[in-house]
Amino acid sequence: MLTQRTLLAASHRSGLRRLVTGTTTTRRVVDRFVAGESLADVLEVVRTLTGQGMSVTLDHLGEEVTDRTEARRSRDAYLTALDGLAPLKLGCRAEVSVKLSAFGQGLANGGHDLALGLVRPVVAAAATQGTTVTLDMEDSRTVDSTLAVLGELREQYPGTGAVLQAMLRRTEEDAALLAGPASRVRLVKGAYRETPAAAFQDRAGINAAYARCMEILMAGKGYPMVGTHDPRLIERARQLAIETGRSADSWEFQMLYGIRPQEQQRLVSAGCHVRAYVPYGVDWYSYFMRRLAERPANLRFFLRSLATKS
Ligand code: FDA
Description:
Structural class: alpha/beta
Number of strands: 8
Oligomer: single chain
Helix content: 40-55%
Radius of gyration: 18 Å
Strand content: 5-15%
Bound molecules: dihydroflavine-adenine dinucleotide
């Protein structure tokens, strides 16, 4: 738990960022979780995964921009990504996930409106390709703003996806509010450091909260996107789909690129819809640190690879 907290705190430290990203050996470990730095790299991965029967959601890495120019760059990167996806004609089998902090949400004086204004053209471009955008969820201070942006976007683009983090104490209520017709909701455990007042801290509490929220979403009228690699919760989702009479195309599993890939394939073979969350781009540091924080074995692997090289 201490290591996890330290790594999550480190994900915001620029000195450490320089140290980690400046080491070429880091690359080998990063490659496990990140599909490459360029659009060409990620499109190659998209071809492979969709050829294996999966769907994908692309994440152009970057978050917490510090000025409006960077925020506009995020918008442009996503528009370019959608242009790149268009010839593949995958429709809703290839969508994109965005972090509103990359669109300026956190900037003082109008960050919320800036993010809404910059993400709207991305959602519009996705819609013209018959696909959707999902708004990733960041730390708990951003939830109200992100759900407000979601509400605005859904007025015109009802397929816009939400993410809810089971670890947050508020999430059962949010899940009930978002379980309405056609509402696409990805449920995840939550990857950010939160206070005990805002979030369950222990594994058992988070897992139980996940199961309760999943029950709400699966029993609802929306489109649940079960974002976990946890074997017990995966099994529970399949059970719930049977109990609630859901057809295979009325919900899906989502997993991160590079994590439990065999399980992803096993579920595809079993007739489940599975979407891989595929990050790409040069700004991979914070994403990578969160993946290290989730699993001590990843940290050991990373440290070993550094030691082997030096
Ligand atoms: P848990 O952490 O208990 O892991 C269960 C098992 O999965 C582990 O035992 C291990 O086998 C494997 N595993 C999990 N993480 C691993 C890792 N990093 N490396 C290797 N193996 C690993 N969070 C957030 O706050 N906002 C968001 O928008 C999103 N978006 C998102 C999209 C998708 C598609 C997924 C799957 C996840 C997210 N997350 C997220 C991250 C999420 O909150 C959570 O941190 C991770 O999914 C890990 O939690 P699990 O549910 O997999 O369980």
